[in-house]
Amino acid sequence: MGNRVVIDPITRIEGHLRIEVEVQNGQVVDAYSSGTMVRGFELILKGRDPRDAWAFTERACGVCTTVHALASVRCVENALGIVVPPNAELVRNLMFCAQYLQDHVVHFYHLHALDWVDIVSALSADPKATSELAQSISHWPKSSPGYFSDLQKRLTKFVESGQLGIFANGYWGHPAYALPPEVNLIGVAHYLEALEWQKEIVKVHTIFGGKNPHPNYLVGGAACSANLDDANALNAERLAMVGRLFDQAQEFVEQVYLPDLLAVAGFYKDWGAIGGGLSNYLVYGDLPTRGYGDPTSFKFPRGAILGRNLAEVLPVDGADAAQVEEFVAHSWYDYSGGDESGKHPWQGETKLHYTGPKPPYDQLEVDGKYSWVKTPRWKGHAMEVGPLARLLVAYASGSAEVKEEVDGALAALEVPVAALFSTLGRTAARGLETRLVARWAKEFYGDLLANLRNGDSRMADTSSWEPSTWPASAKGVGMTEAPRGGLAHWIVIQDGKIDNYQLVVPSTWNASPRDAKGQRSAYEASLIGTPIADPERPIEVLRTVHSFDPCLACAVH
Amino acid sequence: MANLQRVYVWELPVRLYHWVNALCVTVLAVTGFMIGRPFFPHIGGEAWQNYSFGWVRFVHFTAAFVFFFNFLGRIYWGFVGNEHARWHQFLPFGKGRLRRQAKEIGQVLRVDVLLAKDESIESVGHNALAGVTYFATFLVFLFQSLTGFGMYAAMSDAKLPRLFAWIVPLMGGDFAVRQWHHVFMWFFVVFSMVHVYLVFYHDYVEGRGVISSMAGGWKFVEKPKP
Amino acid sequence: MTKRPLSVWEHAQLKGYSRREFVQFCTWLAAAAGIEASAVGQVVHALETKARVPVVWFHFQECTCCSESFIRSSHPIVADILIDLISLDYTETLMAASGHQAEAALHESMTKHQGEYLMLVEGSVPTADGGVYCCIGGRTARDILVEAAAGAKAIVAWGSCASNGCIQAARPNPTDATPIHELVSGKPIINVPGCPPIGEVMAGTIVHLLTFGRIPQLDGLGRPLAFYSRRVHDTCYRRPNYDAGLFVESFDDENAKRGYCLYKVGCRGPVTYNACGVMRWNAGVSYPIQSGHGCIGCSEANFWDNGPFYQHLAGFPGFGIETTADDIGVAVGAATAAGIAVHAVTTNIRKRKLLEVRNEPAGPAPSAGEKR
Ligand code: HEM
Ligand code: HEM
Ligand code: NFV
Ligand code: SF4
Ligand code: SF4
Ligand code: F3S
Ligand SMILES: [Mg+2]
């Protein structure tokens, strides 16, 4: 065995993630991923009103806020046989798109960029060359030499103040940084601009859901009634604002995010061969164009790919007890049928039982249980979920839009298709789908306007609102594609109350510990083989882990 | 009427208190229930055209003030009023009372609830069980005042409600305060049913003029044996 | 590298803000922090001369939406200045360093600024089973909290998690999630509840601390009066509908389309203290009620256990979901009425003799003590 390197806390993620890797001869030879915080949502949900569940589950995470609420109302609607009106579906789609736009941009600039961008190196950039470079890759107006030189001065003063704040103790100057100073300076500029911008697009949530983070949802539709003739409802002014926000977002994505992404990626093509990890991909699909009940209408198609075989997309069914199962062989839970067994979420159990080392501890006992994350499997396979999975399944399903987007990027970077199965591929896929989502949002927006113009203003179906109309017992599954991947909630309703509620979350798939058979999940698998230049400063581990955009509050809940 | 004699039981302040209180509690319970569950039909029109729900609340708050000061008056009278109005009628203060009252409660239960036919109750004013029940009622009056004014403090600049603002954090927030304030409305509904029934019952069975006593002040009681 | 740290005004200058813009910004900050106009000069002066205050931001049992809300704070200059106004020396969400380097940054700040740093806490702390439900760097959240609190100048508890336990403390609170003020004593603690709090409320609280060097006026629950002294209901623009008895009866009905009051579909505005009605969310765009959903009371302690959210009264634990005090009251009332009826009938049977005797016009009335 090699040298154990522990990184805890992993920062620039959501939640509490601990990574332990074995390093041998400058390479990771084994990896352990552990979620170290739990709240017990699935226990807290028991006995509550199913119509309230969205609010509870939404609080699983404030970064991917909204997606749990969506999965939740869908699982309740599925259990009760409710079909939401088309406008509500469109409002949900628009909120979905706004979430992707905000979350992906924030991930790229604020959570991931510092793995690739050396802030200190930006101090030695030539503002004029930076400006020329910026103008050569995009029409974004803020790219004059003066702009960059002001920024650089400000950065210099900041560094000289001796108070480095969030940039203190970064891996600055690490040999793994490969960007020229000018690209670094652009990165810093857009880090700040993205911080300003991200608070704009979320206003779509504020309009439809009243606030962000944690906008409101409603079982049966959307609470924001539409009435073109009232100041108190969704009217022309509100809709115009939504339209403008999506226009601005599209511009930011086209003119800032994507050009930056491709520019940075061009200097890190070696990462197109690192961090591939698993070869199986799972997608629940989302963005229905003819209703959530019709998966063939999804912009992100549903399906699974095994062994990187893009020639075949396998069908996925959340209600099928043989497909999704969760294991706790290495997780701090007890199962009534023994910890080796798997459970479909409708039969899921959540019984906390910590067996790890007594804190404070230096190392986890990785032979036993070592995480609060459960381990989900699809037909027994470890699956990667997320942007890369989505693009691959869409690509393999023959989506022309996706194919064009992906092929275009591969050509621009002059890399083979195989480069997708990597850390770089994951990060690139996130950007590419953001561009698609920005485009799709405008289609949904147009559809919503058309409906309202045609006199259909229905936003909710409340015919099954009253629990007295419900069957004594019912089961439902609600699936969506959260920014980090396939998300599903399973509910069992008994006498109007929640009898069982289970969340299986994207980061649960990716961040989980190995299963009873010893199969690694996505983070662990993708870290194997990662080069480590300096075990004291393992920035390479961060790159791969960050490429998944970890969310541990989600993963454990 | 040979064996009966007239006794002056309820002084004017007690009688006045009683009917003002009865009226206030009825109004508070009805308006309170409406606040909790607005059930009146839509008057229609735009918001600026009517203030119906506002009036319901206004009546509730007005009645609340009357109710509260009336209640304070009764508390005072418990110290200065006649034998039947005093606090020891409600609670067994003093030597020997506890036993006597406990015994009487047992008696009342047998006679009034189990309908035993072989006993009679000595008390002239409240019987012991009634006394304890009224005392409980006073506690609920107090509780409703605390919680009511506690909530009211947030919507008023008046000094009085401010004095009760502390109850809100103590009970864990406005929601809990409202919830319990609402729950105790039901106490009054049930109390009033039983109470009114029992006074009629006593009048009917005993013929002491219990009902009219709360109007005129006089009761009829058996002459003591020579 | 051992220069005097830059003041906020110097930072603003570097960013190309004019003096006028800077003063405007100060005025806005002052307004956001509930500071009177006459004191704006003080704010300007404070920001002109003060170095960035060291701040450490902890994450325990939380969902990071308080951090997210914070970065939504919306005045044009604010996202920038908050990087420059404070020196955010530790925050797992944004800091560049991870692992040992992150811990080193934290300890450096805590040692160097002992007694001076501002401590911001997002999330509750699990106290069950020795704290194993939240560990960072192999240490329990509680351990970290207690150590850091000892050297802090003041503590801000962000959101409902840190100020009252929030969702993880909801029944049955599986991890004994505990709010900060129950675990730390002897330090000023400001509770900024909300799930999450409004971004500008968070920024306003920080600004108040920094410009005046003391904590803002707090209410009995430790919340800044500036933002939590009024109920959502008291500043709700739908209030005239409430007073007029115009209510939404069910979602998306005709009344909903006209923006009537949401009281009957469970709005918690009347029992919730927050600034949503006045400040609104995301730069004043809307707030829950304006977008058609009732307030769920997200800034009140225990609001999760005050459900179901769509009915006015909470369900009674142990009864069905929809069983409220009213249902129980009606049942008890009906039982009482039935009891009375039975009692009345029985009385007439059991005590008939007695009644007959008493009602006999000429007969001798029973006397006290006589056996009946
Ligand atoms: C016998 C006495 C009382 C009864 C039966 C009673 C009953 C009620 C009921 C049922 C509610 C509705 C609660 C809900 O579901 O939201 C209510 C509300 C209220 N009551 Fe009372 N109440 C009484 C005395 C008082 C007093 C003494 C005050 C003092 C001011 C008071 C102030 C209030 C207030 C402020 C509200 C909330 C109204 C609003 O926010 O619109 N109540 N009461
Ligand atoms: C038709 C309606 C009512 C009648 C005829 C009535 C009659 C009476 C009578 C006769 C007494 C004296 C009982 C005794 O000798 O022990 C009494 C006492 C009392 N009643 Fe009522 N009552 C009525 C309604 C109410 C209502 C609505 C309430 C309010 C909750 C109420 C509260 C009380 C209280 C608190 C006492 C004790 C009085 C004291 O000693 O201060 N009554 N009532
Ligand atoms: N993993 C995860 Fe989420 C996402 N995207 C949820 O479903 O981040 Ni908090
Ligand atoms: S208070 Fe609410 S919003 Fe803030 S971290 Fe806690 S759960 Fe998230
Ligand atoms: S919508 Fe809610 S906060 Fe607004 S007036 Fe109605 S009850 Fe009050
Ligand atoms: S739910 Fe929360 S956001 Fe405001 S309106 Fe209510 S306090
Ligand atoms: Mg789960």
The distinct bound ligands, ions and cofactors come out as:
protoporphyrin IX containing FE, NI-FE oxidized active center, iron/sulfur cluster, FE3-S4 cluster, magnesium ion
Total count of domains of chain B: 1
What is the overall silhouette of chain B? elongated
Q: Mind telling me which CATH architecture of chain B this is?
A: Up-down Bundle
Question: What is the tally of helical segments of chain B?
Answer: 8
Order of the strands making up the biggest sheet of chain A:
1-2-3
Shape of chain A: globular
**Counting H and I runs of at least 4 residues, what is the number of helices of chain A?**
16
Strand segment tally of chain B: 2
As a whole number of angstroms, the C-alpha radius of gyration of chain B is: 21 Å
Task: Name the average pLDDT of chain A.
Answer: 97
How are the strands ordered across the major sheet of chain B? 1-2
Percentage of β-strand residues of chain A: 5-15%
If you average the pLDDT of chain B, what whole number results? Answer: 88
Low-pLDDT parts of chain B are none
Count of individual beta strands of chain A? 12
Short structural description:
The complex is a heterotrimer of chains A (557), B (226) and C (372). Chain B is mainly α.
Q: Describe it for me?
A:
The complex is a heterotrimer of chains A (557), B (226) and C (372). By secondary structure, chain A is of the alpha+beta class. Chain A has helices at 41-44, 53-58, 67-80, 86-112, 127-137, 145-160, 181-201, 203-209, 236-267, 387-396, 400-413, 423-453, 506-511, 522-527, 539-547, 552-556, and strands spanning 3-7, 17-24, 27-35, 281-283, 286-288, 298-300, 303-305, 324-327, 375-378, 473-482, 485-494, 497-504. Chain A has a 3-stranded antiparallel β-sheet with strand order 1-2-3. A 3-stranded antiparallel β-sheet of chain A has the order 10-11-12. Chain A has a two-stranded antiparallel ribbon with strand order 4-7. In chain A, strand 2 and strand 3 form a beta hairpin. Chain A starts with a strand and ends with a helix. The relative contact order of chain A is 0.20. The model of chain A has no long low-confidence stretch (mean pLDDT 97). With 226 residues, chain B is mostly helical. Chain B has one domain: Fumarate Reductase Cytochrome B subunit (Up-down Bundle), CATH 1.20.950.20. Chain B has helices spanning 12-36, 52-80, 97-113, 128-152, 159-162, 167-171, 174-206, 210-216, and strands at 4-8, 218-222. A two-stranded antiparallel ribbon of chain B has the order 1-2. Chain C has 2 domains: 52-227, Rossmann fold; 230-339, Irregular (Cytochrome-c3 Hydrogenase, Chain A, domain 2), CATH 4.10.480.10. Chain C has helices at residues 8-14, 19-32, 40-49, 65-71, 78-85, 99-112, 141-151, 159-164, 199-212, 225-228, 239-243, 254-257, 276-279, 325-350, 352-359, and strands at residues 53-59, 86-91, 117-122, 125-126, 135-136, 139-140, 152-158, 177-178, 189-192. A 5-stranded parallel β-sheet of chain C has the order 2-1-3-7-9, with helices on both faces. Chains in contact: A-C, B-C. One protoporphyrin IX containing FE (HEM) is lined by residues 14, 18, 21-22, 25-26, 74, 126, 130, 134, 137, 188, 191-192, 195-196, 199, 210-211, 213-214 of chain B.
